[in-house]
Write a structure and sequence with these properties.
about 400 residues; alpha/beta; 5-stranded mixed beta sheet; 11 strands; globular
Length: about 400
């Protein structure tokens, strides 16, 4: 391919599925220079370690990063150990609680284990922004603060809403987007990726780089993936998430809960489906195919990304037997069980604590009377084995899905 064709191809890959690309012409020029010099672009992606697990919502950006990485560019994942101590209030009506050092380190370790299920470990840098932010002295911090006005900060939606509703805004919160922007200066980032909810922060990076006499980074915004409720942004705190480390059974079942009108968006953002295959699915749905069939394909496709072919087939078989043939509710409450013996014995105390039963004796009585089912099949002994994803029916109409921890 010619230089122009190579640039065009890379720009198409970068923009595919994106919501917006700011600085498009400058990015194309950077790509051309990269091809001519052999020096890869520095592509930044920041992660605030506010929760220990990565879910499908995060993978929208991680998959785009992998596509860019496969074109030869350098990916730098910045874990916000320092900014996590401030707490990013994005999209919230009040400031997010700052995290402790221990929480940050624990979550960061989990992040690193999980992101390499998508990114190439050998071609990815993982940096902590405390490496440079903790070294700033007060004079440098004040100089940074002088580059932005309060009125500019109040353009950020959550700050504006809180100011108008007289909800307190801590002065330290203004430093979150400023510190995140300084990450871009430190790394000399050419391109930064984020969700549309990070628009203000990414554009702040461009502004600060320009203020520092640098060529501003391009900013690529990917759509937000709604959770399995189909309404709210996927979030562990809302319970509408699909974790990439979840058991295959649980993952398959959760995908099957997605509303029909979100099927295509999940295919677009959470899988590596080819455009022609996606078009075929769109046409089938338009022609009246049962959406459940397309959703099964989606569940297989997503589960297979994070589990083996054998585990995926077993997960689908389990879903059919437990949730279709035996008509178990698709959304039973989750019951966390600390695994000791790996049998129903482990469930006694959690079931009592969750008020599903009044006592262990009541559970034993129900067992003897055929009032306990596992995945639609009666069980009679406490020695019955259990695993994550199993659904218990206890008494009349009380269902719980087990999550072994």
């Amino acid at each position: 391919m010619t230089i122009n064709e190579q640039v065009k191809h890379q720009m198409q890959v970068i923009k595919k599925g994106a919501k917006q690309l700011v600085g498009e012409e400058a990015l194309a020029a950077k790509i051309e220079k990269s091809i001519l010099t052999g020096k890869p672009l520095t592509v930044k992606f920041g992660m605030d370690p506010s929760a220990p697990d990565i879910h499908l919502g995060h993978t929208v950006l991680l998959r785009k990063l992998r596509q860019i990485q496969d074109m030869g560019h350098s990916i730098v994942v910045v874990i916000g150990d320092f900014t996590g101590k401030i707490g990013d209030p994005t999209g919230k009506s009040k400031g997010r609680k700052a995290m402790t050092d221990r929480e940050i380190l624990q979550n960061a370790q989990t992040y690193q284990e999980q992101i390499f299920r998508i990114l190439d470990r050998d071609k990815t840098q993982v940096r902590f922004n405390g490496e440079w932010l903790e070294l700033l002295n007060l004079e440098q911090v004040l100089r940074l603060a002088s580059t932005i006005t309060v009125s500019r900060m109040l353009e950020r939606e959550d700050f504006k809403n809180r100011f108008q509703s007289n909800t307190p805004i801590g002065l330290h919160e203004f430093f979150y987007p400023l510190m995140q922007a300084f990450d871009s200066v430190e790394l000399e980032a050419d391109l930064e990726l984020g969700g549309t909810d990070q628009t203000f922060n990414l554009l702040m990076g461009r502004a600060l780089q320009k203020e520092m006499g640098m060529e501003p980074q391009a900013a690529l915004f990917m759509p937000i993936l709604e959770g399995i409720d189909g309404v709210e942004k996927m979030s562990k705190s809302l319970g509408n998430y699909i974790g990439i480390d979840e058991d295959a059974r649980v993952m398959f079942q959760k995908v099957m809960q997605i509303p029909d009108h979100r099927i295509i968006k999940y295919f677009e953002l959470a899988t590596d489906i080819l455009p022609e295959e996606l078009q075929k699915i769109k046409e089938q749905l338009a022609d009246g195919i049962n959406p459940r069939d397309s959703k099964r394909l989606l569940a297989r496709t997503i589960t297979r990304l994070y589990h083996s072919e054998e585990e995926t087939k077993e997960a689908e078989r389990f879903f059919t037997e437990a949730f279709v043939q035996r008509k178990v509710p698709q959304r039973p409450d989750t019951l966390q069980v600390v695994m000791d013996q790996g049998t129903l014995y482990d469930c006694l105390r959690p079931l009592v604590q969750a008020r599903v039963i009044h006592s262990g004796n009541e559970f034993k009585r129900l067992l003897s009377q055929g009032g306990v089912q596992k995945n639609g099949q009666p069980v009679e002994k406490l020695e019955e084995g259990i695993r994550t994803g199993d659904v218990l029916k206890v008494g009349k109409g009380k269902f719980v899905r087990l999550e072994l921890v």
